[in-house]
Structure formats: structure tokens, C-alpha cells
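Input C-alpha cells:
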């Protein structure tokens, strides 16, 4: 576990050399990659399952509803719990969803998976801000947030790669299984970050 001490002023080069920065990036990559690949492939995946374009559009709308719920719900949770615990709750939900997607879900299950991944998507920005806030001084909060977000650009490769895997294997199961494996490999990086500091309770003097 890394110390929670961070300088109030640090250069971009120093940030990029920091193990803490890359632990944050590693822990968030499974979330952003899974969500982006699901969104890009939703329509063709739904078609593979025998659902039409209107059905896929409805599933996409439930994803949007999940995003809103995730932002509100996860925001409440990180105010009350260690952000690492909240992170692993989201990861567990995502792993369950990926497992269900490999089983060629029916339409109701697909909608449920979409809502849960929407919640995970809504959680991403909240968790990113909460993690950075807890690991770095407020004076460099914006710089760190920007650099972490910049690393998400690498996930643009997820769309063509997932399409190639679909063409090679004839299904999306290998993609969902691959994302499960990636999540299991990278998510433990979160354990090396310092936890949310405990706020001491104020004891009222008898008066």
C-alpha cells in the first residue's frame, strides 16, 4: 500500500513516473474498456442474439438510465465508504454481467446487463475523481484527472480489436471472457492505493 503523502506541486513528467499514477490507470482500465466495448458492439451483439434494431435501441436507453443511477448511487456510497470497497463492489457487478453476456442472454437479461453496465459507467467518473482526490493534493487535482483521462484514449483500440475477435471466433463470448480475465488481472492494483482517510468523530463536551 502506498503512502497518501503527495506534493502540492509536481510536474507532468514526475506524475508519469509515479507508481501511484499508473496504479490508478491500471485499476480504471477494465471499467472504461468494458463499457466502451459493450456500447460499440451492442447493436451487432443484439443482432447475433436475434434481436432487431428497435430492441437494441431500447437496450441502449436503459444503459443511459443506468448511467444516471450510477452517478447518483455511487456518489452516495463514496461519501460513506472507503472508495476501494466501492470500487470492488462495482468490479464484482461488472464481472457478473460479463459472465451473463457469455451465456447468450435473453432479452430481459440483456436489459438487466445493460442497466448494470450503465451503473458501472456512471460510477467510473465518480470513482476517478474520488480516487484522485484521495491520492493527490487538491492543488494538482485537475492535472492528474486530465492525465488519467488521457490514458483512456488507448481504449479506442478496443472497438476494432473486438470486431476482429468477433470475426475470427464467430461470437462475442471470447471478448466477454477476455474482459473478465483483464479485470481480474488489473483490479488488484486498487489494493495498493491508500484508503479513504477516516474523519474523526466530534465528541460533544457535556455541558
Amino acid at each position: 500500500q502506498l503512502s497518501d503523502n503527495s506534493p502540492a506541486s509536481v510536474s507532468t513528467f514526475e506524475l508519469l513516473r509515479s507508481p501511484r499514477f499508473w496504479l490508478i490507470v491500471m485499476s480504471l482500465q477494465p471499467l472504461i474498456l468494458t463499457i466502451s466495448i459493450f456500447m460499440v458492439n451492442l447493436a451487432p451483439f443484439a443482432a447475433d442474439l436475434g434481436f432487431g434494431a428497435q430492441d437494441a435501441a431500447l437496450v441502449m436507453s436503459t444503459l443511459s438510465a443506468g448511467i444516471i443511477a450510477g452517478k447518483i448511487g455511487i456518489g452516495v456510497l463514496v461519501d460513506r465508504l472507503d472508495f476501494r470497497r466501492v470500487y470492488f463492489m462495482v468490479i464484482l457487478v461488472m464481472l457478473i454481467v460479463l459472465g451473463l453476456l457469455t451465456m447468450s442472454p435473453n432479452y430481459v437479461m440483456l436489459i438487466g446487463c445493460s442497466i448494470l453496465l450503465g451503473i458501472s459507467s456512471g460510477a467510473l467518473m465518480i470513482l476517478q475523481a474520488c480516487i484522485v482526490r484521495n491520492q493527490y493534493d487538491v492543488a494538482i487535482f485537475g492535472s492528474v484527472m486530465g492525465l488519467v483521462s488521457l490514458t483512456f484514449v488507448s481504449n479506442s483500440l478496443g472497438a476494432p480489436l473486438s470486431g476482429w475477435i468477433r470475426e475470427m471466433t464467430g461470437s462475442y463470448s471470447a471478448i466477454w471472457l477476455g474482459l473478465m480475465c483483464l479485470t481480474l488481472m488489473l483490479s488488484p492494483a486498487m489494493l495498493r492505493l491508500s484508503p479513504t482517510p477516516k474523519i474523526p468523530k466530534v465528541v460533544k463536551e457535556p455541558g
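The chain has a mean pLDDT of 87. The CA atoms of residues 70 and 123 lie 5 Å apart.
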